[in-house]
Structures are given as structure tokens and as C-alpha cells.
Amino acid sequence: MVSIKKVAAPLFVSLLGIASAHASEFSGPFVGAKLGLNFSDATGHDFEKSTHTTFFPGLTAGYNVDVNQFVVGVEGFADLHAGSTTKKDGGIDVKVGMPIDGNIMPYARVGFTGTWPDTRLHYGAGVEYKFAKQWSVAGEYTADTAHCDGGHRRNDSLTVGVHYYF
């Protein structure tokens, strides 16, 4: 499998090279925390619980740049839903959004999560609202699936979080 560093680093450097001079409300480094609801299921194995719903905390950190009218970023995340069928998840996503009215940004995300049981595609969509110069709230849906050892696992998460921009 191609190393995430080998793909993400050149992509990020390229994006910095074509970034516009005007900074949007969402450009720059940020950190965040979130709370979510995880819905997970597993088939093909003898699991204690084949379906599970749990509340969980999570953390995010990333960096966004402006590319014309878009905001493109890289975001690392940790979803600590130990009760789900895939346990804790962490990974990295590329995030693409388009600010509306300066302080609202719908976005899509795609990347990889890979803590357990294996590395898998992670994707989702959300909306972020900048309510102060350095603060925003975001709501999003994310999902991932795993095919491992003859079984199938799926995670769907709804989260609400807060970000601090430096």
C-alpha cells in the first residue's frame, strides 16, 4: 500500500503553491474536539454484539489553504468509539469546501482510517460555521467499511465539534 506520507506531502505542497493570496475565514492551522454518535455493525463473524450504537469523543487537527474559491485541507482525526465493532479509529483525510457568505462552509472529506481491524477508506460530508475570528462549530457525517477475516464491518458516525484556528 502507498504510504500516506508519500501521497499527502506532495499534494499539500502543490496546494500551497497554487493557493490564492486572499485568506478565507477557514484557512490556516486548527485543532478541535468533537462528540459523536456511532452506529456500527458486523457480519460474518461470531461477535458479542453484531450491531452497536454508542456516544464517543474525538479529536481533530489540520491545516487548510485557499485554492481560488475553495478551501482544501488535510485533517487528522481520532474517533474514540471503543464500543463499536471497529473499536477506536484514527486517520487522515483531505477536506474540500467552499465558503458561503464568508463564514459558512459545506465540505466533503475522503481519506483513510487504519487503527483496527485494518486500513480502510474513510469519507464524509459536513458544514462548518465560523462564529468568531478563531472559533467554529462543525456538524458532519462520516463512514467507513472493512472487509477482514471473511467478515464485514461498517461505521457510520454523526458528530458535532468545535475548532480553534490559530
SS-based structural class? mainly beta
CATH topology: Porin
Q: What is the radius of gyration computed over CA atoms, rounded to a whole number of angstroms?
A: 17 Å
- What strand order characterises the main sheet? 1-2-3-4-5-6-7-8
User: Mind describing the biggest β-sheet?
Assistant: 8 strands, antiparallel, barrel
**What is the global morphology?**
elongated
Contiguous helical run count = 1
The span between the termini is 34 Å
Strand content: over 45%
The strand count comes to: 8
Secondary-structure arrangement, i.e. CATH architecture: Beta Barrel
The helix/strand order is HEEEEEEEE
Count of domain modules: 1
CATH classification class: Mainly Beta
Low-confidence stretches: 15-21
Average predicted local confidence, pLDDT: 83
Helix percent reads under 10%
Pick out its properties.
166 residues, mainly beta, Porin, 9% helix
Detailed description of the structure:
9% of the residues lie in helices and 63% in strands. The protein has 166 residues and is mainly β. The protein has one domain (4-165): Porin. Strands 1-2-3-4-5-6-7-8 form an 8-stranded antiparallel beta barrel. A hairpin with a 6-residue loop joins strand 4 and strand 5. The chain is elongated, with a radius of gyration of 17 Å.
